[in-house]
Amino acid sequence: MSTHEPPADRDGCPAPTGADSPTRSAVVSAGDSADRSADRVAADAADAGERAAGTAGDAGIAEDAEEPARSRSRDLLLLTGVCLVVLLLVNAFVARPFSVPSASMENSLRPGDRLIVNKLSYAFGGHPERGDVVVFDGTGSFLRKPVERDGFWTGLRSFGRDVGLVPAGDTVYVKRVIGVGGDRVTSAGPGHPITVNGVPVDESAYLAPGDEPSAVAFDVVVPAGKLWVMGDHRTASRDSRDHLGEPGGGFVPEGRVIGRAAWVVYPVGHWSSLDRPAAFAATGGTGGHGDQR
Asked: Do residues 161 and 168 touch, judged by C-beta distance below 8 A?
């Protein structure tokens, strides 16, 4: 009598039977699905990791790019600050620009000309000399000295004027030095030259065309430490002659001189240096403060 044996599987195990026994195809299918799911999870995780790494890398690149920008900004601010400090120091102690407000110095200077005033010309014991064109504060000599209370704001305004941050205002003048301390300066009026210590001065090189050396007669001795100054356009200049009867006698204290007008720098057509005229060489050795230094 023969018996029926269930067919063996290819690996030699009995083939599973019944509804609860999954077929090979089902088992393989389930295993592949699980493997694929795991692979997908791993791939997604890898992608997420790469994205995170990429984001972190981008952030690092952005931070690296921002750092040089911040550094450049700091360098620019530092450079601007240094330039400003240097400019203020130059204005305060070396040279300062001024604008010519009137025609009193024509034709040497014209209204609107921009000057560079050399503030070192009379530093370290130097003094203005005959023939120099000087810029000075006329307060107390050409103008009554206003009563100002000492205080923080007064000192701040004074500092601002010194360094060029505050306009010089209407108290600043530009004139030519004719006599220095100890000089005797005279004029006999129209048709006569100015004399310094008895020496006639030929002013034709710089006087405005048609002007007399002085339409007013005067005879003064310049006190020590003071200056006698006049404009080159004598008929349009209010200078030492106009203040003879005032308490200051028309003399300008050397301490009020801001500096020597050295160059005309604007407009371009007026570029020139303001050298001392040769006419005053004749007065050398005639006495006065200027010859006793």
From this structure: yes
Active site residue 104: yes
Set 175, 226, 237, 240: catalytic member = 175
Report the b/e string of 202-225 with b at 16+ CB within 10 A: ebeebbbeebbbbeeebebbbeee
Dihedral class, residue 183 (left if φ above 0, else alpha if ψ from -120 to 50, else beta): beta
Amino acid at 217: A
For 249, residues 6+ apart whose C-beta sits below 8 A from its C-beta are 220, 223, 243
DSSP 235: G
Taking only the tens place, the pLDDT of each residue in 160-189 is: 555 454 555 678 999 999 999 999 999 999
Phi, psi of 173 (to 5 degrees): -125, 160
Q: Among candidates 220, 215, 218, which has minimal Cα distance to 191?
A: 215
Is 145 a catalytic site residue?
no
